[in-house]
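With this grant's support, we have settled on a layout for protein records. One resulting record is reproduced below.
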Amino acid sequence: MLVIKDLSVSYKHKQLISAISMSLAPGQRHLLVGPNGSGKSTLALTLMGHPDYTVTHGEIFFNGTQLLALSLEQRARAGIFVVQQHAVAIPGLTTEIFLYEAYTMLTGNHVSKPAFHEKIKELFSLVHLGPEFIDRCVNVGFSGGEQKKFELAQLLLFRPKFAVLDEIDMGLDTDGMRALEHVFSLLEHTTFLVITHARELPGFNPDQVHFFTEGKLVTSRVTGVRGREFYDQLSL
């Protein structure tokens, strides 16, 4: 699914990731942990193709294709989805129009707008967002938890092949954490790379745990039940 080989990344001429290698097989769930500033979010943004992050060395392959040769749009069409720590607000663009246009572009499916409206209402209900959010502008005035719930709704709508979730649990209330667990159960065939500081995410049992520090991948391990024991031993 995803293979990273000897990857180094810089931001404004400052090296943030140094020679990391890792691989994720289809359907696997990987956890990425480490202190703030260790390069975790840099990796997430690099995988999605953020223009401010420059790959100075190494390769990334996604389903056998050289990922670095693909544009951001091509990566999204290939089935890659990234949840960033801080969502971007888009004044003047409602969530419904945003989701409809994105869904049409990514899937090529042309659903009637009334049918799509009902689908969005259903998905918002699943992640504990009220129907009033359908007419609100994307992330404008959303709380941190509401932003994350909106991302969960997108995950359910787009059903990506590979999803990177950067601090997806940040700001979620009890209902939001239940929604997160539900999303993990529904997307059992999606390959996940989850970045978190939490000791436990409901419904997420990692196959592998990776520990970052100072831009380096210092340890990757699977022990116990899908990596649980190793994660519990980490000192964060």
Remarks:
- The chain is about 35% helix and 30% strand.
- The radius of gyration is 18 Å.
- The mean pLDDT is 88.
- The helical segments are 40-48, 72-78, 95-107, 113-126, 144-158, 174-186, 228-233.
